[in-house]
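Minutes, structural biology subgroup

Action item carried over from last meeting: produce the structure token record for Glycogen debranching protein GlgX (Psychrosphaera aquimarina). EB confirmed the sequence was re-checked against the source entry. Recorded below for completeness.
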Amino acid sequence: MEADNRTGNVFHCHLTGIDETWVYALQVINKDENKALTTSEKLLIDPYAKSFNRHLVWNQDLYQDNSPFFIAKSHLTLAEFDWQNTSKPNIKNSDTILYETHVKGFTQQLNSIHPELRGTYLGLAEPEVIDYLKQLGVTSVQLMPVFHFMSEPRLEHLELTNYWGYNPVNFFAPDPRYAVSDAVTEFKTLVREFHKNDIEVILDVVFNHTAEADENGPLISFKGLANFDFYLNTEGDYKKSFANYTGCGNTVNADNDYALKMIMDSLRYWLTDMQVDGFRFDLAATLGRNGERFNQGCALFRAMKQDPIICRAKLIAEPWDIGPQGYQLGNFPNYWLECNDKYRDGLKQFWRGDKGLVAETASRILGSRDIFRKGKRSQITSVNYIAYHDGYTLHDLVSYEQKHNLANLEDNRDGHGANYSCNYGVEGPTTDQDIIDKREQQKRNLMATLLFSQGIPHLLAGDERSRTQGGNNNAYCQDNPISWLNWQMSDLQNKFYKFTQYCIQLRKQYPVLTHCLLPDDDYHYSAIHHHVYWIRPDGETKQVDDWHDHDNQCLALVMADDDQKYKMLLLLNASDEDSVYQIPKSSKKTLLIDTELDLLSPIIKTEDSYKQKANSLSLWQLDY
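Output recorded by EB:
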């Protein structure tokens, strides 16, 4: 059927006499300079398709032979779905605890659910999985990409796969590889069951590039339909070429009307028809580009802000790409949240024992106000994290000093070089109890700091149970047990899980840990204000010279309510020496947690001073 009608640059037709069992692809007829018509031999994916008959797998022979069997076909209709009167949880940013996971990897090794459901949308919706998330205490699950994607030809040649899924071929359809039969219905089931249990669903979305790669990459969809309208291009000496600000061969031109409309349509579709709660935007700086330059007031960001549906969603930026001026942390519009890599790197270095970092660490704990300015942005803007999907897991961070990525078949050249990790004496697994104890304590320090900092904490799935990737800090192509969650826990792993669970409970118990409202910050109006000050070991307020002491590795933060019922005291000692702190005067001193002690319940203390052991942290409630 030819789309022989045209309105502007859009060709269209109306089809009759077909039923819902049909599947389809597109084919393009080009008109050359002499107005001769030529038909492309490549079948193309409809960019607006909502469902596919299978996932797309690269096949060199089928592609070169222009075989119609290469391309995945689109369904014409979607099944009706019963949402059972569920509604979105609408969790406040200040109450949000993000939990990043992969649809397949989370349940692939969960033997207690039916084999057919492992690694699927329905597997993630199983009651046992949801109970686990609720008991841990997370509020929002951030799913790694579920857009229909294709592994790169290079990986297929190496007999590897793009496990993470950051290579989309379509912005609307959930990938069929995570489905038992109907990907759309099963994804909606996942969202519905999460919402029934007050858990949000956040999608990691890839609008910055597609699987079509550079000029020499495969012709799958957008290239055959809009090419240099959809993709950002640069003018060379002889011809246009694709701008590559993503490292993936092409860059979606979100400043173009066609691409901008498609992104907006996709966002609204996932928020309304699929009922998700928000998005984490991969390489979000790309979406803010007007040509080469990043612009906070770009057309896409303005369109999102005024849209009555999109503006209510959680919008999380990965605030960089590899293009010119690609690092834009702190420069997104104020209604966005931003992944804060300065928090990640600063806290890693502080607890590793690097010196000269107390001032920066203090800033990170109180919401990175050097980046997200008072009165301009909320400190809840900062999405704090220690581990993400790219990089070491928390356990590997304290177990490896060198990346071990040989399984990726890139001669260990890939992955981050600056990991700020430490193995504490032995690379990888060990039976040395002293090293094991040191690693466990450092994990407790990092996890507790993350959960007691201002901003939105982001946990990587499995970190609460000491998941390891064997030192691989870039497991993007490892669709195997390297990446999958191991549901078998040792006593030591279970102990750390209980610790993480307890820290989350403490965060939820004390509002000042989730949102500290300061009198000199007028971004949020509130009748309640908190007061904070930093003290020295002698109990006196820190002075300017104290902040500039390069050898100081200790911090003590006091946070108090206006109603003067209690104060919170956070003590951090990243040095190798014990430090004795005078505890501020109070009618009752309650030690809530100390990472050096086997303590998961409060203890009343009567002493006026406290010895904070080396490489440890404690949190207190001080009643008046």
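Discussion: The two ends are 79 Å apart (CA to CA).
Next step: EB to file the record with the rest of the batch.
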